[in-house]
Amino acid sequence: MKFNARVLGMAASLIATCLTLAGIVQAGDKKAKADPVQTVDSGSFGVFVKSQRVATETFTIHQQGASSVIKSEMKATGGADSVSQKSTLEITSSGDLVRYEWSQSSGGSISVFPNNDFLLEKISSAGSAKAAEEPFLMPSTSAILDNNFFVHREVLVWRYLASACKAAGSGFKCQQDPGEFGVLVPQDRTSIHVHIELVGKEKIQVRGADRELMRLNLKGDGFDWALWVDELDHFKLMRVSISADNTEVVRD
Questions:
Q1: How do the pLDDT tens digits run along the chain, 252 residues long?
Q2: Helices marked H in the chain
Q3: Which residues contact residue 62 at a Cβ distance below 8 angstroms, ignoring those fewer than 6 apart?
Q4: Distance CA 229, CA 154 (A)
Q5: Is 136 helix (H, G, I), strand (E, B) or coil?
Q6: Would you tell me how many other CB atoms lie within 10 Å of the CB of residue 81?
Q7: d(Cα 207, Cα 46) in Å, to the nearest integer?
Q8: What is the 3-state secondary structure of 114-163?
Q9: Three-state SS for 104?
Q10: Can you say whether residue 23 is alpha, beta or left, with left for phi > 0 and alpha for psi between -120 and 50 degrees?
Q11: Contacts of 238 (CB under 8 A, 6+ apart)
């Protein structure tokens, strides 16, 4: 599948800023100097179950020197006292995990970081003085896809496109073969394999307006999600459909 060179050039620059993954970055992009702190993406996603808004995720993606920091807060709809969850994911310029932190307003926290050939997860429960530890025999290049944080899916899409799209003449050509990733789901304390596949352009509605967006399918053991990204806006995630749960996620 071929895409407009200018558009994919913008996506290449975005991916380079966030992950600096080789293969999709043009020579001119490699020479460009990034700002010390650069905002790659920011905004919010509305989470809807059976057309009713149940939660909002607010997120930022910043590049800071040789690493990128993805911060997110998920808050249930229901007023100032609603339970919220926060996460901070830091990765290196090559995509390696530096650290992952999760906490919730009702108490409890999780941290994940590389430890020799393992990923080590530390779990602190509310009221507990000592954190439990759980190692995972996974490389630091493993992706984090924690529960409830859809911005993690956006980063995984960029990572997939960086490996799937290559320069072809004056443009880029993207393979449609599925990409496979080993991922850690910290809140579930489990590791899984997921497949992501580029489907192509589709016309769908986003906030009541017709849009032509690029669709990808994200699949794993027991789940099948459809994701749509905006080719004209740096491949930012615009909508997610989880039909099995009657759930839609839409960028505000």
A1: 544 444 444 444 445 544 443 333 333 344 455 457 889 999 999 999 999 999 999 999 998 788 899 999 999 987 666 779 999 999 987 789 999 999 999 899 999 999 998 999 999 987 777 889 999 999 999 999 999 999 999 999 999 988 887 767 666 677 778 899 999 999 999 999 999 999 989 999 898 889 999 999 999 988 999 999 998 888 999 999 999 999 999 999
A2: 5-18, 27-31, 151-164
A3: 37, 38, 39, 40, 68, 69, 71
A4: 8
A5: strand
A6: 7
A7: 10
A8: EECCEEEEEEECCCCCCCEEEEECCCCCCEECCCCCCHHHHHHHHHHHHH
A9: strand
A10: left
A11: 206, 211, 213, 228, 229, 230, 250, 251
For residue 199, how many C-alpha atoms fall within 13 Å in the half-sphere facing its CB? Answer: 16
117 contacts 125 by C-beta, under 8 angstroms: no
Rounded Cα distance between 127 and 206, Å, is 43
Identify the burial level of 174 via C-beta atoms within 10 angstroms of its C-beta, where 0-12 means exposed, 13-18 middle and 19 or more buried.
Answer: buried
Cα(165)–Cα(175) distance, rounded to whole angstroms?
6
Contact 241, 217 (CB under 8 A): no
At 186, the amino acid letter reads P
CA dist., res. 151 & res. 134, Å (int): 25
What single-letter amino acid sits at 20? T
Encoding tokens for residue 4? 């407009």
Token output for 131: 């954190």
Task: Kindly give, in sequence order, each residue whose CB lies less than 8 Å from that of residue 239, ignoring residues fewer than 6 positions away.
Answer: 204, 206, 213, 227, 228, 248, 249, 250, 251
Quote the tokens at residue 139: 């490389």
Are 207 and 250 in contact, with CB atoms under 8 Å apart? yes
